[in-house]
């Protein structure tokens, strides 16, 4: 009897899977690709749907997504069939798909030729005081004038932008990356899109070189780093994320620009290494291990990889997912995956410099650097702790733990203000903003812009006089605060409400260091 029931269950499961595959081919494949890797619509893979719960995904399939080409199928499919399709979308692929230069080149789209772009801005706004407002819920972006706090341009973006906006050195171009692997370039002078290319299937973030010539993308799928020509987003090189033996591959959890070193630095999720890759045209070769002879003909005198972008590996004691750098970018601070501390590595010596007293999963990518009593310190919120930690960047000792009303996610400051702002992102006090005096390392003000709603993504204007705050559940609004008085001075109605806004501007660098 049990055997018969088991066979019936297997047959039923097989039939349901076949029906789901048929429904996917009939209703989903045209937009999302027959292999679920994406097309007009986003890739339907668990890595790409990380922000979406299954219940929310079922509602999207049933009712559609506003302001998109995603139509609802509630009138065509039963609830059981919709659950089957969602379960399929959240099922990992058996094999890591290939996505090389050939596939990237085929995906590339040129919207406006660089040679046809204007020689000066078509608007009167300061190019270095523009805010990029990512509208998470509606998949649009608004470019905001940071002086008049007026929108200049709103455009539809790729699905689920991630990793923040990155800018060319002169502030003219903004580059955006999506979880689906798309890298997009926009001209902030003409307010026109320039080009797009799909650099991966699931991407974590991008970085732009200090000379404005290169864009590097770090991918979860496939396990790779991709170098693009910043001018037109043509692919230049694919770097496989593997150990030195080439046996173990890794997801790339982050890529950063190190402006003082003319290099990119990559964080790897599955290999205990830090990579530094130079884009300096005069960069010295990278040799493996300890080199005693670099003479021609010597086995040790053969570079491991040609420049540019040769991998200079630093072995680490733990998997380090999130980085923060000292002002010289010589030392990289990494958060331990276990959440029990942090580690500091010197990129010149390629050795550990210190261990950090940081528990509760510090969010290093959102930390800030400032001067306190004649020494350089950094401060970081914690994702699993009610505190902000302040660390001396010479001794690497924690000099203060500032109690907060809950775990925090974002922290920002500016060189023209004595105050730093950090949020309470989780817990019963969610929505609180702490204002911290950088001179005393004490909280001097608690603000609750909208009780019960998530206040986040504080960003300062270029002169540091004002800051923008995104209130995520308050549809259609951004808040402007006076940085000196801590008073709200303006509410900005966005053109179309979308629930969540992430705000970025030119003064915030990819390391999280605010200047």
Task: Please provide a brief summary of the model.
The chain is mostly beta strands. It contains 5 helices and 33 strands.
Describe the structure in your own words.
The protein is mainly beta and 515 residues long. It has 5 helices and 33 strands. It is globular. 11% of the residues lie in helices and 36% in strands. The termini are far apart. Strand 23 and strand 24 form a beta hairpin. The model is unreliable at 4-12, 290-294 and 508-515 (pLDDT under 50).
Radius of gyration: 24 Å
The fraction of residues in strands falls at: 35-45%
Class of secondary structure makeup: mainly beta
Low-pLDDT sequence parts = 4-12, 290-294, 508-515
State the helical fraction: 10-25%
Write down how many β-strands occur, each being a DSSP E stretch of 2 or more residues: 33
Largest sheet: 5 strands, antiparallel
Name the descriptors.
single chain, mainly beta, four-stranded antiparallel beta sheet, 5 helices
Element layout with pairings:
Blueprint: H1 2-27, H2 29-32, H3 54-63, H4 79-89, H5 101-107, E1 109-110, E2 130-135, E3 140-145, E4 150-156, E5 166-167, E6 173-177, E7 182-187, E8 192-198, E9 202-208, E10 214-221, E11 224-229, E12 235-240, E13 252-258, E14 263-268, E15 273-278, E16 311-315, E17 320-325, E18 331-336, E19 342-346, E20 351-356, E21 368-372, E22 375-381, E23 387-392, E24 398-403, E25 411-412, E26 419-423, E27 433-437, E28 442-447, E29 455-460, E30 466-471, E31 477-482, E32 488-493, E33 501-505
Antiparallel strand pairs: 1-8, 2-3, 2-33, 3-4, 5-6, 6-7, 7-8, 9-10, 10-11, 11-12, 13-14, 14-15, 15-16, 17-18, 18-19, 19-20, 21-22, 22-23, 23-24, 25-26, 26-27, 27-28, 29-30, 30-31, 31-32
Helix pairs in contact: 1-4, 3-4
């Amino acid at each position: 009897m049990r055997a018969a029931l088991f066979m019936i269950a297997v047959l039923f499961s097989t039939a349901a899977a076949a029906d789901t595959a048929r429904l996917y081919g009939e209703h989903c494949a045209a937009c999302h690709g027959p292999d679920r890797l994406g097309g007009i619509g986003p890739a339907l893979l668990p890595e790409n749907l990380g922000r979406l719960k299954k219940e929310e995904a079922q509602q999207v399939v049933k009712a559609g997504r506003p302001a998109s080409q995603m139509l609802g199928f509630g009138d065509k499919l039963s609830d059981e069939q919709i659950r089957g399709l969602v379960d399929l979308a959240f099922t990992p692929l058996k094999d890591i798909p290939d996505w090389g230069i050939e596939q990237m080149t085929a995906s590339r789209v040129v919207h406006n030729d660089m040679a046809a772009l204007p020689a000066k801005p078509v608007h009167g706004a300061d190019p270095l005081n523009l805010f990029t407002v990512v509208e998470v819920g509606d998949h649009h972006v608004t470019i905001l004038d940071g002086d008049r706090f007026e929108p200049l341009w709103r455009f539809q973006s790729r699905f689920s932008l991630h990793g923040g906006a990155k800018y060319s050195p002169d502030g003219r171009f903004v580059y955006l990356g999506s979880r689906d692997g798309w890298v997009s370039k926009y001209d902030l002078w003409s307010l026109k899109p320039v080009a797009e290319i799909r650099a991966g299937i699931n991407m974590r973030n991008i970085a732009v070189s200090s000379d404005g010539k290169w864009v590097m993308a770090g991918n979860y799928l496939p396990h790779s780093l991709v170098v693009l020509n910043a001018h037109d987003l043509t692919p230049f090189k694919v770097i496989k994320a593997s150990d030195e033996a080439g046996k173990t591959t890794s997801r790339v959890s982050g890529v950063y620009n190190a402006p003082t070193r003319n290099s990119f630095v990559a964080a790897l999720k599955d290999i205990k290494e830090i990579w530094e890759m130079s884009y300096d045209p005069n960069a010295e070769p990278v040799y493996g291990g300890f080199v005693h002879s670099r003479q021609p003909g010597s086995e040790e005198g053969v570079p491991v990889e040609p420049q540019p972008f040769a991998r200079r590996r630093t072995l680490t004691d733990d998997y380090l997912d999130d980085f923060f750098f000292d002002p010289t970018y010589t030392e990289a601070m990494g958060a331990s995956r276990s959440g029990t501390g942090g580690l500091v590595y010197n990129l010149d010596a390629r050795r550990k410099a210190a261990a950090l007293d940081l528990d509760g999963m510090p969010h290093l990518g959102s930390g800030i650097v400032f001067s306190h009593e004649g020494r350089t310190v950094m401060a970081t919120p914690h994702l699993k702790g009610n505190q902000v930690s302040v660390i001396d960047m010479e001794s690497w000792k924690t000099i203060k733990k500032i109690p907060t009303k809950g775990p925090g996610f974002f922290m920002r400051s500016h060189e023209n203000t004595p105050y730093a702002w950090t949020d309470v992102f989780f817990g019963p006090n969610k929505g609180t903003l702490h204002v911290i005096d950088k001179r005393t390392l004490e909280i001097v003000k608690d603000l609750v812009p909208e009780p019960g709603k998530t206040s986040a993504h504080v960003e300062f204007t270029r002169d540091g006089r004002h800051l923008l705050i995104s209130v995520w559940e308050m549809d259609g609004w951004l808040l402007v605060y006076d940085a000196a008085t801590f008073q709200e001075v303006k509410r900005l109605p966005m053109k179309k409400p979308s629930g969540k806004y992430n705000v970025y501007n030119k003064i915030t660098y990819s390391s999280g260091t605010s200047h």
